[in-house]
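User: Hi! Is it possible to get a structure for several chains at once, not just one? Here's what I have:
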Amino acid sequence: MTNSIAEIEDAEVIFIIGSNTTENHPVIGTFVKRAKNKGAKIIVADPREIELAKLSDVFMQLKPGTNVALLNAMMNVIIEENLQDEEFIKERCENYDELKEVVKDYTPEKAEVITGVKADLIREAARIYAKADKACILYAMGVTQHATGTENVYSIANLAMLCGKLGKESCGVNPLRGQNNVQGACDMGGLPDVFPGYQKVHIKENVEKFEKAWGVKLSDKPGLTVSEMFHEAIKGKLKALYIMGENPVISDPDTKHVIEALEKLEFLVVQDIFLTETAQYADVVLPAASFAEKDGTFTNTERRVQRVRKAINNVGQSKADWEIIVDIMNRMGYKCSYKSARDIFDELAKVTPQYAGIDYDRIENEGIQWPCPTKDHPGTKILHKDKFARGKGLFKPTKYRTSAEQPDDEYPFILTTGRILYHYHTMTMTGKNEGLMKIAGESYVEINPMDAKKYGISDGDLVEVTSRRGSVRVKAKITDVVNEGVVFMPFHYADGSANVLTNTAYDEVTKEPELKVCAVRIKKA
Amino acid sequence: MLKIKINGSEFEVKKGLTILEACKEVGVEVPTFCHDDRLKPSGTCRICVVEVEGARNLMAACSTPVTDGMVIWTESKKVVDARKEILNLILANHPLDCLTCEKSGECKLQDLCYKYGIKGSTFKPNKKEYDVDESNEFYYSDPNKCILCGKCVRVCNELQCTGAIGFAQRGIKTHVTTPFDKGIANSTCVSCGNCVAVCPVGALMPKKKMKYRTWEVKKVRTTCSYCGVGCQLYLLVKDDKVVGVEPYFGEPNRGLLCVKGRFAYNFINHKDRLKTPLIKKNGKFEEATWEEAYDYIVGRLTEIKEKYGPDSIAGLTSARCTNEENYIMQKFMRAVIGTNNIDHCARL
Amino acid sequence: MITLTINGKKIRVASGTTILGAAQKLGIDIPTLCYDPMLEVYGGCRICVVEVEGAKSLMAACATQVQEGMVVYTESEKVIKARKEILALLLANHPNDCLTCEKAGVCKLQEYAYRYDVKFGQIDGERHNYELEDSNPYIVRDMNKCILCGKCVRTCAQVEGRKVLTFAYRGFKTKVTTAFDKPYEDSDCAFCFRCVAVCPVGALKDKRASGKARHWEVSKEEFTCTFCDYGCKFEVARKHGKAVYVTPKAPSEGRPLCLKGKIGNELKYLDDVETPYIRVEGKLEPVSWAKALGLEEILYKIETEKR
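Assistant: Yes, the chains can be modeled jointly so their relative placement is included. Here is the combined structure:
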């Protein structure tokens, strides 16, 4: 997030695109609702009529995979009606002319054909967003889990810059991160192309810096992303995989493909708190301690570095993940002598500029938002306040491209996937809770009543959902939350797993898979 | 700045504060039932009344602004008598159940009865006879213990904005309920438990899987392990087991949680937790010691690295693990294995 | 050595061990009210009853010695039913006072009522209506709360020549009294606090701790008294960091407790100290700290030295 959670409550306009906030980030959802109660206008763009859509001022129920067309059309209206922030554009941005050129084509009427959203709704949304002083954009996986994910994000940034809604209170471009520490995992260099602090591995100075810090020679060749790892494994090039606390068999697209890759490996280590679906394929499984059994930090979606504290002793013989890895590092001949999580934090703060000013004592009571470069820096609530990280804000105009897979006669429906309030990711944690399982115990597929009628499907019927990659049987939930031609499935469940169906096509830049759009057919089972 | 006097001492306080806020600033405790810093004062419970010199009546500290030269007494005889009377009235229709009440030890009513020496009601008892609503999976509502402070209703409507509960009927029959008394399970309730967190008495209580008294648990503050909001919460620990969760009142969640963070903690001490390393032999997992597992892993990784090169090995780090662990994992891959093949499910 | 099974777990213990002792070794918690490892076994409260396979009736775990091959169940349905009944009977004649009772939080009756889910009013019976004895400055006696476990009587009798307490009267009227049922200050009581330290309920309370804090509000720190060589254990309770009372822990072998230790440590640890009282010609009188702690003579000498 460029801005902070608390600022949402004071926004005049909140534009939510591709985020079912009240179910996936329930507490942030309450900030949105409180803003609404204080008089804020809410704009929602989502293929489903989610809870926030019901209390929105403008709801644009777009066809999955058409974000760019919608956003370009909003910009088209803004420029057409001269609602852009000229001063901000002139002083702080570049490449505006190209943006103007590209969005010129995207009239609301043209976008209506692509997105299925009425042109007037797009106009209204554009005006409301552009005219407000404090307008923030919230988005999540509905924007990023597309083959065009990067373009979607560029478009959001373009819109915010066009209207000067960056670097100011209650504005900004705010991705809501789905996992407790996905922000931190990225910050810490858990990515194939960057060291901690997003320092590129192919840049010589960075390599030298880390070689000096760690006392060994390092590779400057960017590594493989998750999806590439599975491809390389199937090709026989990747031989060993060490998985710490992930469950790709359920969470990744095209389950069959993932399993094939795992089976092809010569050696697979899985470290987790439960014997997950992925762990079943391992050669060695190591018992990890849960978050209640260890010290450390998580970094939340607003970049706030917060303490995790040990509450109970390790269950069984389990060990904290860091202890296990440190043990192995030592046994592989790399000596390290961390005695506690604090020791590791002190080291990582030295090499991660954004974290340099943070230590456990400073965040004892309240977390600090990075960047925090020095010990006396209070942390950063709002990014890009006076200038952008790169200097000038660069407009990156993008053209609309269709999703990798389009419905056709054989697979006439678009399947989109997501989470629900009562479960979390692959259910390794929530699936153990009786109460949650009573409320949401099994997978389902949402089907529009008109489609259901056409296929003779009633609520609660068992339905077979089939894509080019596989087939699952789940119960039908007949609801007008989805439009005709679109079906929705939660991806949590191992039984009736949505990711048996999803497409592995991915975004060229981020390698993010297109989980939000694939073509399926349905029939009564 | 305003000059005021509280209990005989002079203070300077900012303009625009209520008496309650001013007292808090200077460290004078005033009891409250219905007050919540996050909500507008409602002034319904009257337990916070104080004496203001020159005023005809006692004033509710939570909703009276301080004025320059105000002289306030928070524990004068008049104030104490009024508070005793209020407690006496509340107890007239409150079950005397502290022996086994789950709230005992953290009950505001109990605290104040102890403080003011109220052992029971002198009024003719008029006990309520409502059914306990146990329809929700995670908490229950016992309207017989409700003191009608209204915090749950206001939190549900004004902070959580779910609007599942409200007041019904009038006078002695007033009670907190869902529309048409249909029960919590049949309302719009999303089981966030934010009403439970503010109930000052035992009317809204979490359902417990393991019995514990409030004084038996240790509370450890930590960060929620579900989504990316990073809510601050307390883990309640008894006998080295996590038996409950309560919200922390501060940034970023300000005392709010969701159903998962608040109630789905039982995975921590679940019987299916992995407890020993496992090594697959002939297609079956067998329990192993840490040393065996380490030897095996180090042996195989070294062998593969030598045979196929470091780029034949990859690691998946985790958005579920701590920063420290993510740092160590990528350092392991980069500095020890010698590859940048490190990624995680940031995209899922 | 004797082998027996408790709740399905086998254990070997020395002969002469009680079922309670064997269970404790296994980490099995059997409730007790009248049992105290420092006192002779009394077996009066029956809350520790357990089921022994083959036995006609439930057995008191504190008073039954283990036998070879014994099979014991400490939480069987029958046992739980018996305990619930005992608790319901105790509660029938116990004031419903946890709202403000000083013992709440460390009261055994409350602990077991919670554990076995027994409430007030399940049995309606006759109630005592004794007058509260609040006349001396140290100990409050509320015989309405007494459950007649007799621990106070036994611990008092352990002190050579003391034996201030005894059971008097019969049946429902049975009561722990001093000789001739007089208040503590008119008896031979030395206010050593042994009876207070062992009372499982709110019948005997440290008056100087009353009204200071609820048990769950304080952090307690144990310390050893240094006024003499016995080394009795006390604890100091702090609320919000402020030391609010000092109270003796249960007496143990060779650690008798005494009033001098109690008030001396109050002076040593507390932030706000209350006036000490000692017996002057048999009557409890407020005195100076020097007199209370027997330091007058020494202080006088120090003073004269100076001159």
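The radius of gyration of chain C is 22 Å. The CA atoms of residues 65 and 225 of chain C lie 36 Å apart.

User: Great, thank you!
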